[in-house]
Amino acid sequence: MDEPRETALRSWFVAYSGRYRAALGGDPRVAEKTEHSERVSAEAGGIGEELGWPPNEVRTARALGLVHDVGRFSQLAEFGTFDDRHSVDHGLRGREVLVGEGPLTRLDAADRERILDGVRHHNAARLPEGLDAGSLRFARLVRDADKLDIYDGFHRAIVAGGGLADGFMGRLDRRAVPSAEAVKCLRAGRAVPNSAVRSLADMLLWQAGWVFDVNFPATMRRLRSRGSLERIRGHLDEIGAGRDAAEAVDRAIAFRDTELARVRGRAQAGGDAP
Length: 274
Hints:
Helix content: 55-70%
Shape: globular
Number of strands: 0
Radius of gyration: 19 Å
Structural class: mainly alpha
CATH architecture of the largest domain: Orthogonal Bundle
Distance between the termini: 22 Å
CATH class of the largest domain: Mainly Alpha
Largest sheet: none
């Protein structure tokens, strides 16, 4: 993607999100989602640069990050929620918006498909088999970038009082004890399924489990430098979630550090370290 096309897509996004800001009477969730999209765009570009991607691919990564959540706006207008379980799959809706609105028509076919596939699958529990190799790289990148910003955004929401945190997945039960399923998954080194999330503690464990689905060492390094998992452990301690929950997050932290040590060892041995 060249600079003029990236700029044109960004202009379209500003205008499109602005329509919903006006239609929904300044609902703060529109601004929240717009700002999240801008941050994910920056995260995606930063990871792409660290991976050594060429400038045209970094621009495509930024563009994908910008529009990855474009389905959220009509989802909010139609259903009043960002909870896919009670509305629509916002990844699928986002792809439909981009096809219907046509902001990608001036892109070459490869960039267009990479963005459409990335938007469609950024929120999937797992990426589907058979994705084109180019689409797969970009989908993995935007999934990592999205996670990074949600970690930070959820932390800010809890510090600010938790109201915004409820918007991630409906009204959260504030009881402190997490579900046995969420703890078991994390201890086994598996992601926590959405179906196990019924409380704030579950939500925190669900996010900690994302570390098992991180695609690039550059993302792992950001998680460690920002203390994202350590903050989750701290929030669980604050709400009295118990020792089992804390130990489950320790399992996620150990996995992160082991993966980074493995990458360092490979680099020292002269292997690739993306």
